[in-house]
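Mods, move this if it's the wrong board.
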Amino acid sequence: MEQLLYASRYCMVVENIARKNGISKSELLHREADDLAVRIALGETHVIAETKKHLARSGVNVAALEENTSKRNEKLKRSNHVILVKNLPFNSSEEDLAAMFQKHGSLDKIILPPTRVFALVVFVEATEARHAFKKLLYTRYKDTPLYLEWAPDNILSPTSTHVEEEEMNTIGERIITKAIVDQTVEGVSAEEIDPDRVESRSVFVKNLNFKTTDESLKQHFSTKLKTGSLKSATVKKHIKKGKNVSMGFGFVEFDSVETATSVCKDLQGTILDGHALILQLCHGRKDGQSAKKNEKDKSSTKLLVRNVAFEATEKDLRQLFSPFGQLKSLRLPMKFGSHRGFAFVEFVTKQEAQNALQALASTHLYGRHLVIERAKEGETLEELRARTAAQFVDEQSGFQRMSKKRKQTSLMDEGSVKFSRIVE
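Not the wrong board. Structure tokens:
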């Protein structure tokens, strides 16, 4: 999601923070404020979370947006009638966008989050959408050029088009606070996600309503299958006060890998008992035991924070992470009078660490994207430095390969317009 905040990222974050707190931008950006960088970082975190919540409530498959931007997938299948509109000024409105786009065809709807990060314009006819794309690409709107891109093909949940207002209300407030992909099931361990099953044919289903049963889960998928067949559907349960109660997630097994993969793509975000389902393909692996061992080697309460700007201090990191729980310790290893660019943050509980890991995954501090992961138990500073260096080399190699590929692609190739991310 962070990649969707393009050139106007920090301006947009500042606008959102200032309006939310009822202060002017000059007051927010006062040069004597010693926690300015942290306030901007937390503001960015809030903007991303609020955007995800609004999109999920509006029937948008946030997972598709995440996949689109994080993987830089050149071959990702694109919609032929949904346009992603970026680089919007904060005073953008649905009315203004509708007036601009409906000149070129009939609109189904416009989805504009309150954060104004971007908008989705949905046309009824693909030919009209294509005409609008050609005519409005880079058109100036309120003194800024519009950046257009075809949205992923599965950007909208099947129930979102032409949905009645009453039907949207039945989804309930849970979807507002539980955005797709933003969701984490409390208490789910690697062993629970990895039961004895044919994993490559199984789908892990999260965000289930606690009232959903095995039968209703099975019926939901079996009635929506286009090809293949369903083998089994199980809601994970545990004993609570002497009763079997749902844990909010389950597993659905299909007849083939192809069917499972298709289900993850086509049924992502579909509504069951008022909840937008989050689907994840269970990957089969030969080295299952070693994978589990690696997972166990990782700390449940300690986080490794990489790519920390050298301007950042221990105080900055404490202010950034403390809103998510009680800090047990925070270490910023030093060398020759400056820190090494990474830190260890340890929380009191596993859930607090998970909350921080999830919420700050897209956050920037002093303009640098914080790379956060669970730390390994007993890892030394030298081992960490070697691992970080190896990861940096891999990332740079991948970026260079992608850059070379992009040079061979015309920016005006319809549906493939890409924009560089701002400073990471």
